[in-house]
Model the fold of this input.
Amino acid sequence: MKNDIQRILIDENQIQRRVRELAEQLVAEYAGKTPTVVCILKGSVMFYTDLLRHMQIPLALDFMSVSSYRSGTVGGAIHIRQELTTDLAGRDVLIVEDIMDSGRTLNLLKPLLLKRGAKSVKIVTLLDKPSRRDPDVSLVPDYVGFPIEDEFVVGYGLDFAERYRNLPYIGVLKPEIYASV
Ligand code: IMP
Ligand code: MG
Done:
């Protein structure tokens, strides 16, 4: 698996240091509240569990899996592959995402959760590719771990064809790996 990686973009220490900083900011943000922290499966699992280990405040966990697709000329739609199991009405919600790319998924998800009665919805994303943003998306993430260039990355939850999620760092794949699929 390691042999498929061209170079490490963000190593384990860098990730862990940044995750701890983000957790500190989030603890301040949610002081006196009991947020529901929503993990967007599957890419966010590593980030989510590391982040929560450093957020020692009362909170609830929930999980969902979503994807977005373009539908004709209207902006697009969200597909819920796996639904939450708790009621978000009146809750302060923190969405934990692995990477914001076009931004279409979160741009559809945030209003959906607000429509379900969430009191507030904030977003923390480990990675952000601002240069890839869909011009129709105005949503800005509240917390970003690392802004990155327009490169396809894997590891620490992120996959290529469901592989590499279990790498402990974030790396760039060798181009021949794409070519072989
Ligand atoms: P978007 O922001 O709606 O375009 O979707 C973001 C999703 O695309 C992420 O949650 C990832 O699943 C996937 N994605 C985008 N860029 C990458 C990447 O570099 N590596 C792995 N997955 C990616
Ligand atoms: Mg994803």
In short: The two ends are 15 Å apart (CA to CA). The pocket of inosinic acid (ligand 1) is lined by residues 43, 68, 98-105, 152-154, 158 (CB under 6 Å). The longest strand covers residues 60-71. Residues 13-149 form a domain with the Rossmann fold fold (CATH 3.40.50.2020).
